[in-house]
Amino acid sequence: MPAIVDKYIINNIEYDRRVKLTPSDKAEIQQVYKEGLFSQRELAFIYGVSRRSIQFAIDPEKLVANQILREERGGSKIYYDREANTQAQFEHRQYKRYLLNSGVELHLVKNLEVA
Fold this sequence. Notes:
With 115 residues, this protein is mainly α. It has one domain. It has helices at 23-35, 40-47, 51-58, 60-72, 82-102, and strands at 8-9, 107-108. The radius of gyration is 18 Å and the shape is globular. It starts with 7 loop residues before the first strand and ends in a 7-residue tail after the last strand.
């Protein structure tokens, strides 16, 4: 059953924990990698993300191609774990409540039905 906080969307990259690399990070990664200063592995370590995330930041076309192949294989349903998803959803809702109580402005979705 949806919670009331599900009506809100975190519209600030600074608070959205799903965003691993900001657009400015991606631009910086592309520039540094193009100059040959760091390898993909070193950049991944510096930014605290996977090498694959760095690869997608450097070459966005690979991300699009990967998404197409993933959809052909059945999408992310292959890896679905109900218990882990329930726990992640619970923690995300707690985080949204924390942001709302802290005064962070969240975007209200008007058409979402909440029981």
